[in-house]
Each structure stands twice: as structure tokens, then as C-alpha cells.
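thought: fold this chain, then report.
action: predict
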Amino acid sequence: MRDTELHDDTTHPDYLRAERRVARQLGFFRHLAIYLVVNAGLMLANLLTPHPHWWSIGPLLGWGIGVLFHALSVFGRVPADWKKAMIARELRRR
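observation:
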């Protein structure tokens, strides 16, 4: 199927997979934007208050770990060829 035909057929499995991938990527970028805005506000609040320690580092690091795992789940896939090669290697071990 040519690319132009794929764009016109919104029920084609390849189109649906691409649409899901794009939705996941947009979800990640939305998550990252909210993380950056909220943590910038927390850092600013931390700077403007007379606290002797950096309390805003806790949310920054904790939520940052969540953003990292979200990024890995969206962008950190093992290529299909690697997966096939690993399966073949496991089958040869038996």
C-alpha cells in the first residue's frame, strides 16, 4: 500500500498503530510541559521564601523519575529486529 493510500484509509491497521503512537508521544510532551511549568513555579516559590533548604528538589526529582519512565515507555522501544534475534537465540538454547 502506498503512503497516499494509507493516509486516506483511517481504518487500516498501520494507520491506527501510527495514530496510537502519535497520541502517546503527544501525551508525553504534555506531561513534560506540565512538569516543567509546575517545577519552575515550585523553584520560584522556593527562591522567594526564606527557607534554609531547597524543598523543591524533592518534587523535581520524584516527578522527574516519572517523566523519565514515561519517556522510556514512549520512545525507548527495542527495535523489532533485536526482539526477533533475541527470540531466535532463546530458541537455539533449548
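thought: worth noting. The CA atoms of residues 57 and 65 lie 12 Å apart.
final: C-alpha cells above.
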